[in-house]
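Fold these two proteins, one after the other.
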Amino acid sequence: MRLTKQRKAISDYFAANPEHAFSVEMIYNQIGDGKMNLSTVYRNVDRLAQLGLLARTLMKNTAYYYVKKEEHQHFMICTSCFKMFPINHVIEEIIPIAIGQTDFKALAHDIVIYGICRRCQLHNEKSKVSF
């Protein structure tokens, strides 16, 4: 993959914010500055996701992208500030138990819990988001 100026700007943005998830519009608003249009950001983010560098989750019918880690991850995402909180240690203990009790053959899984982090709760009680 050729590293264009646009891809570098998007990659640098994610590298500077590895613990957050962003919609394409959020990325565009932060780094677009007239040098690239929204469709360029969409294409480049989609390409980075296809290459396995970014992962995607859906919140309220909007795709949010985040840096994909080498190991499989489970996390909570604050729907106010979009910070991600890993919860791997808890989930990895529960999954084998649930599978064993149901005689289920798991092929893949993604677990994301959406809510409001402590900081955002304290900052703004009106930040509740309904799904």
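Now the second one:
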Amino acid sequence: MGSPRVSDIVSICDSLWPPAYAEPWDSVGLAVGDPSAEVSHIHLALDPMDAVIAEAKDLGADFLFTHHPLLLRGITSVAADTLKGGAITELIRSGIAQYNAHTNADSVIGGVSDVLAEAIELTGLTPLVQHSDAPAGVGLGRVGTLSARVSVRELAARLAKAAPVTATGIRIAGDPEVQVERVAVLGGAGDSLFDEVRATDAEVYITSDLRHHPATEARDTAHRCAAGTPHLIDISHWAAESMWMARAAEQLRERLSSGGMDVTVTVSEISTDPWTERIGQAGE
């Protein structure tokens, strides 16, 4: 077949990460680009930031696949001197299409939360929240079982070893010495799903972006039950989700190869975690 068109790549992506699996509030799919343009190089990254767009341009990519959307909330201008407008202008000038798979990639089997769960060796995975209009196994988050009980501290250390290094590292809320076996994970911001976690038998919940009030209220709620669960492990949003990018690239390469499409696929080497340094304090 040779070089496919943007529309062909969109069709492949939509089949791997069906837009129907996205949450109602989400924005997924092609945001920038001519569907009829040819594609020779797909570049994958978590975020469509300026540095990533420049990286894609330097590599000669003509299709930028990201997890997070470029356009999620409504904007009223795409002027080049605005944040979103500047990105769109640079993409168009550089001949780069931009597509994203967000919560649909979170929910699909083999997606973001599956990769996170596999990184800490969970088995017997089921969705934390089963998608109402999808086959069994599709949904947000995963709940699974460790091969043996370990302390929360040991589990956090296992996660730290598997995940990319970030300034904020891995944080624990709860008793680090408690032994756990059943674990819930959700790549990305997960403090909106505490009720769903409590409805499972998960003893610890691994997620990102845990804010002060939701985290303290979750632990206070845990203290009111005999088991004191779930304990919390917080991982950088970027670290939790960026591990999936290699899996997505592998899936794309396989689908392109089986279709006879000659396309280069690369994964960004740029960390888009916003935090660059952590200053230690006395007594640590």
